[in-house]
Specification:
- Helix content is about 30%, strand content about 35%.
- By secondary structure, the chain is α/β, with parallel strands linked by helices.
- α6 links the parallel β9 and β10.
């Protein structure tokens, strides 16, 4: 899948406004189909699938920006797959410790996992910027998994990326896991990381969007989805359809102000909030499927 990156430069009348403007712009661009963002010194960089990019939508988002006296200019460019992967492989990432229980480390540059003091150590060969634990949303989902009974459970990882969430669940006692992703380099990378961590026999990874779930037999005890808000809204009903009653759905990839919109649709489907985590305005919701009647 081909990706584009857009560099947004935000000129504010006050430096104190920069971070709120970053968040507002990322939220607006999420509506335009952007999937992930990273901060820069003077704005943000957004990543979007080439097929989903619309300059007209970006222009509209900027024109409707709600903060006065803010000027936003942007530049969009291709991301060559080889260069994209190579940059991250070369850069690597520092070990990330979650809740004092899990260390996610760069397996490409760290040979000895025994140097870490946490009970669970997971090595990741990162072939992209997402799914290493460096982002708040990944860390929050991992932390939520650590608080969720997983022994003997079957889990689903939607938009699996590197496979970090499914692999974590398997390390925490899940019996089997299924993941899917729209990008072939992600599905290949997820299986590579599963083999690296010795859990490949318990993980199945599928290529495609949520429609692949129609070809998966059986239901899941735990479903995880760390994806942008619009995709979550569109796919919530598919997640609910493959969950057992009493099952858990963990959602992230959106800002806290987007939670009410997601929860309204979730409640309609019989999915009720159990807990939430927030970090730097990013949000992670834990829901339970307990319908009062058929939905």
């Amino acid at each position: 899948m081909k990706y584009l990156l857009t560099k947004f430069n935000i000129a504010c009348p006050s430096q104190d406004l920069l971070q709120p403007c970053r968040e507002l712009l990322a939220d607006a661009c999420g509506e335009c189909g952007y999937e992930s963002f990273e901060d820069t010194d003077d704005g943000i960089i957004g990543y979007i699938q080439q097929d989903n990019y619309s300059e007209m939508l970006v222009e509209h988002a900027i024109a409707e920006f709600p903060v006065e006296d803010v000027t936003i200019i942007y530049e969009t460019e291709d991301i060559p797959d080889q260069d994209w992967n190579a940059a991250w492989e070369e850069q690597g990432f520092e070990p990330i410790v979650v809740s004092g229980k899990v260390t996610i480390y760069d397996a490409r540059n760290t040979a000895d996992s025994e140097q870490f003091s946490t009970p669970i150590n997971i090595g990741i060969h990162a072939s992209n910027a997402f799914g290493t634990g460096t982002h708040e949303t990944t860390r929050m989902v991992v932390a939520t998994l650590l608080e969720t009974p997983l022994q003997g459970r079957r889990v689903l990882d939607c938009g699996c990326g590197t496979g970090i969430l499914a692999i974590t669940a398997l390390f925490c006692g899940a019996e089997t896991a299924v993941g899917y992703d729209i990008d072939e380099w992600s599905t290949d990378n997820a299986m590579h990381n599963a083999r690296l961590n010795g859990v490949a026999e318990r993980l199945e990874v599928l290529l495609g969007d949520s429609s692949v779930l129609s070809h998966v037999d059986g239901l899941f005890n735990v479903v995880m989805a760390n994806i942008n808000r619009n995709i979550l809204l569109a796919d919530l009903h598919r997640f609910q359809e493959v969950m057992i009653r009493g099952g858990v759905l963990i959602l992230s990839g959106f800002y806290e102000e987007d939670a009410p919109l997601l929860l309204a649709e979730a409640e309609r489907l019989g999915l009720h909030e159990v807990s939430r985590k927030t970090e730097n305005n990013w949000c992670c919701l834990k829901l339970e499927y307990s319908p009062c009647s058929e939905v």
